[in-house]
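Contributing: when you submit paired examples, paste them exactly as shown. First protein:
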Amino acid sequence: MKVKKVLVSQPKPSSEKSPYYEIAEKYGVQIEFRPFIKVEGLTAKEFRQSKISISEFTAIIFTARTAIDHFFRLCEEMRVNIPDTMKYFCTTESIALYLQKYIVYRKRKIFHGNTGKLDDLLPFLLKHSKEKFLYAVSDVNKEDSNVLDKHNINYTKAVMYRTVSNDFGPEEPFDYDMLLFFSPSGIASLLKNFPEFKQDDIRIGCFGSTTAQAVRDAGLRLDMEAPSVKAPSMTAALDLYLKEDAKKN
């Protein structure tokens, strides 16, 4: 069966130049964007239950822009004053630059890695090892913090937001030939929304090894996986898959 309708479990691209639109036109397929999960921030009341006092920390570790948004939101709601001496450690430059939305960007107090991994931040963390670090995370945080433990970094994980299922409405059609997932939470949401889900001819594609494992753990068939040498992105993988699918059909 030829793929005619694809569900991408992410928000609709803000740019009309997205590769997804080119792929849709190239292969004559319908591509729809519909997140299976959404992010909700913890309320100030919920965060206080963790007994974490933000004002006690002298530095913060961020691995996502979402974490930055919810950190500053909670600070505002709880009337926590962030001192100018606070240091910020981000796993990528883009995350570090995002801080400009909330603070004046000064290189002497903002540090960033390049790979998106905590290991890349280690030289900066060790150089400032006397700081007391707050590590802002989500409830499904998968980042391996063993590197922090191994080097005796003084840190505390603080859950500031959660990932929840973005439920389908009873009148919302589910007539897709292919589903694309980007996180294990997306697979969990699929099964929550459709407990009796039968894959049959529906193709499933995913990005990342942890998502691929979640597909297999759910007893589903994985038809397409990215990244790979030939397809470093989800769009590149989808392009290759639809090209082969067109040949077969």
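Second protein:
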Amino acid sequence: MQSIKEESAFARDYLAQVAKEAEAKFDEHLPPVTDRPCRLHEAMRYSMFAGGKRLRPALVKATFDMFGGKGDKVWLATSALEMLHTFSLIHDDLPCIDNDDYRRGKLTNHKKFGEATAVMAGDALCVLAFELMGKTGNAKAIEALAHLLSTYGLIGGEMTDIECEGKKVDLDTVDYIHYHKTAALIEAALQVGAMLAGADDKSIEAIRNYGRSIGLAFQIVDDILDIVSTTEELGKDAGSDIEKGKATYPSIVGLENSRAKAKELYDESLKALDSLKCDTSILRSIAAFIITRVN
């Protein structure tokens, strides 16, 4: 049996492999900068190619393959999920929300192109994502993705995060924010991959439970890294959660209890996979990567 660190190393290799393939598809699916409006298309590409782990595309691809999916439609979904993630980051960084200057070690979109262009770049990526999902021909996957992005998903989590900034909140509220703002889109990536592959309802439910656990663990680890890492290590402003009075796990239960919770969620994610009869090794390694990553 591999250790968590060995599992994490395997996941890093897998993420790098999928990232290379997925980014080639991003280039195909994004409008060229030579098409009007050129500056808007440049801004969309700037944030899409600003780096990152490409976790959500990897989860789409891993789940699609795990359930025996065939064909190239999966790459439409990998691009769509990364576009939606990028849209959320562009808007999250805006002066009216988090007012961040750096993302992944580069100037945020509004710092590079101005606020108006950044807003439209995020909007355009969101719209294009659903255009690509439409081409998959899977209405249920589109519906599930839209729901997990909506006021009952990512957007709802973002709104609650804004409302709670600078206020004293309880752990239930932090869980609500973390699930909706972060875990929902991770869950969506897994669900979309499974649906495109034709997985049955029982398998999709297991995948959703896995996604909920690793998504929450991912955000808790982010909370921890914001405290223990430097700006250079993070590629964005370190300590910004504390400075802005964000609702985080360490602010409620402390660092050690936060680390323990992340490990508990990791264990829960593996348990969720136990009911599946297919090879779940890649998803298990990605769960290990999430709780051991340093940036």
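If you have annotations for the second protein, write them as plain sentences, like these:
The longest helix spans residues 201-228.
The chain has a mean pLDDT of 93.
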